[in-house]
């Protein structure tokens, strides 16, 4: 998985009825776009994440079109 600053991470809910969590990559801490990433959630909370198989990267250009 590779991401850049401005991309979004979508962590899909694991249980029926659980909502996806969307965060924005604010810093790439790994080499060449690899995890871990510092992310910011819509409520302003920041965390360091190493995304698992339940995550998807939405490139900045893709989510700007929406």
Automatic annotation (TrEMBL):
Entry-linked InterPro entries: DUF1918
Compositional bias (Basic and acidic residues): 57-66
Top-rank lineage group of the source organism: Bacteria
Domain DUF1918: 1-57
Residue numbers spanned by region Disordered: 43-66
Pfam families assigned: DUF1918
Protein name as annotated: DUF1918 domain-containing protein
């Amino acid at each position: 998985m590779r991401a850049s600053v401005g991309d979004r991470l979508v962590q899909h809910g694991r249980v029926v009825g659980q909502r996806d969590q969307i965060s924005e990559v604010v810093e790439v801490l790994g080499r060449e776009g690899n995890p871990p990433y510092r992310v910011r959630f819509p409520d302003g909370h920041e965390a360091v994440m190493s995304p698992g198989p339940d995550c998807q990267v939405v490139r900045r250009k893709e989510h700007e079109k929406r």
